[in-house]
Amino acid sequence: MIKNFEIRRFSFFIFIIILCTSAFIIYNNSKNINYRKEYVEFKGAVIDKIEIRNAKYYIYSQNFVMVNNYIADEYRVGDFICAGGYRQDLLSLGDYGLYLKSKGYDYRMYIDYIEKIGHKISVASIMDEIRQNLKSIIDFLYKDYSTIIRTLIIADREFISKDEIMLFSRAGISHIISISGFHIVLIAGIFFNITFFLSKKQRYIISVLFTLFYVILTGANPPAVRAYIFYITFIASIFLEERYDIFSIGFLLSAFYMILNPYVIYDFGFCLSFMSVFSISMFYKIIFEHLEKIVKNNLCKLILSMVCVTLSAQILTIPYVYYNFGIVSLISVITNIISVPLISLAYPFMLLSIIFVKIPFVRDVFCNVVNFIIYLFYKSNEILTSINYSYINFDHKSLFFVIITYIIILFLYTLYIKIQIWGNYISIDKARE
Questions:
Q1: Which of 129, 191, 270, 291 is geometrically suited to a Cys-Cys bond with 207, CB 3.0 to 4.6 A?
Q2: 356: helix, coil or strand?
Q3: Packing angle between helix 298-325 and helix 399-432, nearest 10 degrees?
Q4: CA-CA distance, 405 to 334, in Å (whole number)?
Q5: What distance in Å separates the CA atoms of residue 340 and residue 347, rounded to the nearest whole number?
Q6: How many CB atoms lie within 10 A of CB 18?
Q7: At a CB cut-off of 8 Å and minimum separation 6, what does 126 contact?
Q8: C-alpha–C-alpha distance, residues 336 and 345, integer Å
Q9: Which domains does the chain have, with CATH numbers?
Q10: Residue 37: which of 84, 105, 70, 82 has the closest Cα?
Q11: Bridge-partner residues for 56, per DSSP?
Q12: Contact 59, 21 (CB under 8 A)
């Protein structure tokens, strides 16, 4: 047990050094914010991403985010453009600016004029073409639940409503609509299992390749990339027959992200995904080992395992969610026990309905199954969150309270580990006697 929870000092110290350096860089930059709007023009930029939110067009290119209320012409990823407008430093935009900085952008520009001057075929443009086709297929197949299915399949949250986001927050299941470890494990598991007729090594390789394609297709967001790296390092540990040290990988990986972009610490999905991984790694086995003693049935142990995963993930993530959203769900264990199996069950049928879209009877069978499962997913969460005291809303959030909470959690965890070490020494001494 001690080996399983051993935190490698080298990777931890590297993480702390990079974290402190990132904080210093951010603090230093905050003292030199440019609040002026400057008119700029550029030519030959390539569009990396396009979003339509709140009746506004958001065009992402290089280190710019271009915004306009209306764009007459059709643009797509890979287009070369020339444009002009008023540029604004993102640090002058408060929390939203910090969020965009966490994604690697430096400026926002209100578009005065924009013109397409060419097109470049690239991996990004090909993936965007596939995404657009998948959007059309999903909208055709699932008229009632296209928004949530778009989110689950291709990470398109364009039409997710504020009411839905609030529902997921109150239920404690926001991780389900953010492509991260849960989805990577699902996709990898699906491709690993459907290739059962191959050798285990070949199955792992195929699952790794298809999961990589999925990560790129969904935009290669930090949580998805993080989860994929954890997955391939786990597979590598199996091939190399080495012990898998999730803490070392996690600390070094997060340090690497901060080196690339110090502002990544403002990316909610990035921070939440790392916290949940560390939290499960630290507390799952402790909780499960103490509770499994009262459970003997295998099915009950499976359910208990799911409960323990949810409980352990909450320990480090609840304070962070509280500080960012002012909501703490008191029913997250129950909602996750219901929602995670439902979405896991729906995933293969979603993929099959897309694959067999040209065969009406087969397609309709799969669609009906998905519609029923998604209906249960929404209904169960609506009922549970309507119960009194199912969640707590906080009008005021305290950073001091969050810091103290984390200090207490880490102190108790360290104390528990030391007690286990002392217990092992005592047992060894008694055995020698």
A1: 191
A2: coil
A3: 150
A4: 24
A5: 11
A6: 19
A7: none
A8: 14
A9: 38-120 (2.40.50.140), 128-397 (no CATH)
A10: 84
A11: 53
A12: no
Q: What does the block give as tokens for 64? A: 């710019």
Edge-to-edge order in the sheet of strand 79-89 = 38-46, 79-89, 107-119, 64-68, 56-61, 49-53
Split at pLDDT 50, 70, 90, the class of 169 is confident
**Residue 81 has which token pair?**
């453009």
Q: How far apart are the first and last CA of the chain?
A: 24
Q: Do 180 and 269 form a contact (C-beta atoms < 8 A)?
A: yes
CA angle 34, 37, 42 (to 5 degrees): 110
Tens digit of each residue's pLDDT (9 = 90 or more) over 287-328 = 888 888 777 777 677 777 877 888 888 889 888 888 888 888
Q: Token digits for 20?
A: 């402190």
Phi and psi at residue 44, in whole multiples of 5°? 95, 10
> Which amino acid makes up residue 234?
F
Specify the amino acid at residue 100.
Answer: L
Secondary structure in 3-state letters for 358-373: CCHHHHHHHHHHHHHH
Q: What is the DSSP string of 63-102?
A: TEEEEES---S---TTEEEEEEEEEEEGGGGTHHHHHHHH
Token pair for 100: 């965009």
* Lowest mean pLDDT segment, chosen from 241-245, 284-288, 351-355, 427-431: 427-431
Q: Bridge-partner residues for 328, per DSSP?
A: 392
The whole-model pTM stands at 0.81
Q: Token digits for 281?
A: 């790694």
Please give the pLDDT value at position 209: 92
Residue count (the chain):
433
69-116, pLDDT tens digit by residue? 777 678 888 899 898 999 999 988 888 888 889 888 989 998 888 888
Average pLDDT in the 194-198 region? Answer: 87
Q: Could you tell me if 331 and 385 are in contact, meaning their C-beta atoms sit under 8 angstroms apart?
A: yes
pLDDT of residue 419: 84
